[in-house]
Amino acid sequence: MSYFRPTWPWGVYRPQGDSHLLREALTKATVPSGARVLDVCTGTGLIAVTAARLGASRVWAVDTSYPAVLTARCNARLRRLPIRVEHGDFRACAVGRRFDVVTANPPYVPCPDGGAAGTGRARAWNGGPDGRLYVDRLCTMAPRLLSVGGTMLLVHSALCGPDLTLHMLGEAGLKASVVARRRQPFGPVLSARAAWLEAQGLIAPGQREEELVVVRADQPG
Length: 221
Description:
Oligomer: single chain
Order of helices and strands: HEHEHEHEHEHEHHE
Low-confidence stretches: none
Number of domains: 1
Number of helices: 8
CATH topology: Rossmann fold
Largest sheet: 7 strands, mixed
Mean pLDDT: 91
Radius of gyration: 16 Å
Helix content: 25-40%
Structural class: alpha/beta
Strand order of the largest sheet: 3-2-1-4-5-7-6
């Protein structure tokens, strides 16, 4: 499978460490031939394109950013892949649908109160005071998104509690585990918030490295 080199305009979250970790996890998970896939917070469409190339018969990609939607549509059409990109909240776009595979790279960076949504590019990473605003929504919605035997792959920082993610998914009746990890230095956003993160007790004094995790959740067959 050739490497994906997406096109993106200013204002769209470009693929970074979390995107590539999720892509690797999706590749290893094996997308069933003919699978129906939902990619939440698609950004440039990297994961949606990967799913289509791995054998999915239909891929729905969702994002609340208009520039991201246009970018993902462009990248899908350039490659002539069966991807439908929709604008809006995944909870509304996915109503009445079930998917064999759900992938998600939601905003998960902790931010001060009032900065959950943000503006411009910040909407792609601001995840509320503890980083779990959108992660929790995905955990709650997962059982209604997955078909019998379906799988969700969710990437986020260890700063926002992988154990809580596993607990919520387990309580929802899904079998959940961490299937991929990656450590990397803080990027510009976390570096700028390091003092605030320390004050909130979210990182240790002087910590300037985070761990990314991919959580896999399976709907029992």
